[in-house]
Design a protein that fits this description.
single chain, mainly alpha, two-stranded antiparallel ribbon, about 50% helix, about 5% strand, elongated
Length: about 120
């Protein structure tokens, strides 16, 4: 799996990944150290959570974030492909992968087999 942070994006603020502050990965999502600190301060009561940022954005700012959202979606899709590859490397069947994804075996195989990409 690709763990290079420079090729990833924070799924919360859209910043590009770098070593400092680090990106922390989850199941298809990443969060940067700055967002972790901000959310940590809000959760500990040191700072109030503000309204969602899109409520304060102008139309051009909102449009400017569409690219980041698209990149986050691509990133999640790439992560899913890597996990399916991992499942296949463990000899898990297309049937079990399809069941886990809620899709038919054939659809899983067509979507994720190496020849289909």
């Amino acid at each position: 799996m690709d763990l290079d942070p420079s090729l990833k994006f924070c799924s919360f603020c859209g910043d590009e990944g770098r070593a400092d502050p680090p990106l922390f990965g989850g199941l298809g999502a990443f969060i940067c150290g700055t967002c972790v600190a901000d959310f940590g301060a809000a959760l500990s009561g040191d700072r109030e959570l503000r309204s969602p940022p899109w409520e304060r954005m102008s139309d051009p700012e909102l449009l400017g974030h569409l690219w980041s959202i698209q990149q986050s979606a691509f990133q999640a899709e790439e992560f899913l492909v890597e996990w399916v590859d991992l499942a296949r490397s463990r000899k898990l069947s297309w049937t079990s992968i399809g069941q886990a994804l809620g899709i038919p075996r054939r659809e899983a195989q067509e979507r994720f087999s190496t020849g289909a990409r």
